Amino acid sequence: FSGTRTEMDKIRISVVRYANSYPFVWGLKHGGLDDESIIETDHPAVCAEKLAGGRADIGLVPVAALPQINNYKIISNYCIGAYRKVKTVMLLSNSSFEDINNIYLDYRSRSSVALARVLAQFMWKRKFRWAGTNEGFDFINIAPGEAVVLIGDQCFELEPHFAFGLDLAEEWKRYTGLCFVFACWISNREIDDSLLMRFNTALKSGLDNIDRVVDYFRGSCPMNDKQLKSYIHNNIDYNLDEDKKRSMKLFLELISRL
Q1: What is the CA 161 to chain-centroid distance, rounded?
Q2: Left, alpha or beta for 134 (phi > 0: left; psi -120 to 50: alpha)?
Q3: At 222, phi and psi to the nearest 5?
């Protein structure tokens, strides 16, 4: 990965397009990787599909999708995690929890959908009827007795429309005592050590410049500047430490038992 690059030679990076990834996107775009990479922002499920299908070399991939990617390797000590309320992975309904029978699953997610199923079986001890959604699905106008698993920035916009809500990261913490990891950085092939070092340095630069990140993405999501800064600082934890690795392992084990 040295010298002048053609489009064919560039490393292909797929990163989640939501606000929780803004520091990573900013770091990659301002960290000197533009000339040697193609950076695309995608829904989490699409990140996984690109890595699984060989259409990306590096991706911020939902943990639940890792078993479907051949020969993946975790390449960074950064991730998208949460020690407490995450605010952007919610179970929302206009009925009380006891009265929910049907749950619609956000088509953009894999880890959050799997998390809802894991919690239903092992923590809540509930059996629901699960249904998929698509891009045109009306997440607000659902019937009594129904709920939606909703992810991303639009939770800030749509949550006030519902009478009941559960934060799924907080539920995982209550069940396991562990933080939750939604996505981690992986590659599906060997990456040059020098590039890998620059890649992780770029990620760190975004996390070290949150004020500039907030200014750069102003108006790009339903949150105002104060909300966005608080969300990045207080709701998302970006360090893939040993506790989070244990949480990932447990989550994958529970998924395999569903």
Answers
A1: 23
A2: beta
A3: -65, -10
Q: Which amino acid is at 226?
A: K
Tokens of 185: 């950085």
pLDDT at 7: 64
* pLDDT at 5 exceeding the cut of 90: no
d(CA 152, CA 141): 18
Closest by CA to 183, choosing from 29, 8, 17, 2, is: 17
pLDDT score, position 178: 97
Distances (CA, A) of 36 to 4, 12, 54, 111, 155: 8, 9, 18, 30, 35
Strands 11-16 and 58-62: parallel
Strands (E), 83-125: 89-93, 102-105
Neighbours of 32 (CB within 10 A): 13
Q: Which residues pair with 205 in a beta bridge?
A: none
